Hints:
The chain is globular, with a radius of gyration of 21 Å. It has an eight-stranded mixed sheet. It has helices spanning about 10-25, 35-40, 80-90, 105-120, 135-140, 155-165, 180-190, 205-215, 235-240, 250, 265-270, 295-300, 380-385, 385-390, 400-415, 425-430, 435-440; strands at about 70-75, 95-100, 125, 145-150, 170, 195-200, 225-230, 280-290, 320-325, 330-335, 350, 355, 360-365, 450. It is an alpha/beta fold. It is built from 17 helices and 14 strands. β2 (about 95-100), α4 (about 105-120) and β3 (about 125) form a beta-alpha-beta unit.
Amino acid sequence: MNEQSPHTPSRRKVLRTTAAAAGTGLGIGALGSVTAEAAAAAPAEAPATAAAAPRRKGATMAGVPFAGRSTVRVGLIGLGNRGASMIGLYLALPWVRVVAVCDPVREKAERAAAKVVAAGQPAPAVYTHGEDDYENLCARSDVDFVHVATPWDSHFPIARAAMLAGKHVGVECPVAMRLDELWELVDLSEQTRRHCMQLENCCYGRNEMRVLRMAHAGKFGRLLHGAGAYNHDLRALMFSPTYYEGPWRRRWHTQLRGDLYPNHGFGPVANYMDVNRGDRAVSISSFGTPALGLAEYREEHMPPGDPSWKESYIGSDRTISLVQTAKGRVIRLEHDVSTPHPYSRINSLGGTRGVFEDYPERIYLEPDHKDDRWGDFAAYAGEFDHWLWKEHANPPGGHGGMDYIMVYRLMQCMQLGLPPDFDVYDAATWTAPVPLSHASIKANGAPQEIPDFTRGEWRKARSGVDSVKPA
């Protein structure tokens, strides 16, 4: 569920970034891609035309391995809900050292440092001097990898600073909020030869990895469609005075109408379909409901005079997007954090031989099943569970163990000098629905072109999360 660690919303950088986002349409127009007005005038059946990919300034990072090292040295930036929960996973790996931690809230940084010392490692350097102290962490010569778990508006500048300082960087979802920022991260990764990765833990869920291996083994036949979502009732948390350090997450609902958090749903399905590894996401059409849920919750639960009463919510309570791929497949994405409902990421995949649907998990494949009766997905565990889940049957950490599996695998790739399971092109693709769904909803659902961040490399098959166990 990847709740990001909080910082105070009154910081000048938050205000500057959100004001810029509101004034520029999140960079969509700045890149030369369609404005909402132009898209609305375009024929409904024709994708709105995005700007041509900017000229590549460095070689591709697709398939580029890390430089192997015996010890991986990590710096963590953002130590609230999400960042603090990840420290123990790094400390559980004997070849990883946490050498630096950073958060403007000193108490959070000091608690994180105490965890490192309690684990038997040397005390890490602590950076708490204002909103830009992360730059000093990134400048250290003894950091190999930077983990970013801060509010969304700061993801891009921190990832940028890390790569410019020669560090590989992993960013919690979403990696950036603007289309021009996504392109800049792609360019910087290629120029600096440093990986910039979306830390998408749901790609490492046990069910997701089993479905991935079954898809690659042909159990679903030729793939046709998939679906993913982030449907999670966050109303109480977004209005809580203590869960987030300020209302930064809720305030995005005053800025954007589209899918604010597509990565958990998009990432796994993109992996099933080998997006950026033989197929490509080419367009997205999005539709949104009225924005009613947060205002109703506020009316029922927040006292008169609460600062939230100054907010006007425009974010659709539920967004539904359809992504078309180059091979003609369709991916449905949903986002809803503003209405009451059980948690679901949908996580569905269908092909010419059957379908899997999650929440609850169920499967129907020919010739294994018949009479229109769902089969037992657990029956496929022995043959198709990923080697990471066979090796770590009861992983520690949150979200059912997927957080640990993600950290373990990434740190393993860095130690052994392997390519990462996903890269900056995946990060940009999985995040592109944030600005593009907003533009499509404003344009009454007109399709928006998803850029080819790989600049043609998507046509080449290569490995990803469905990895082979290292010797």
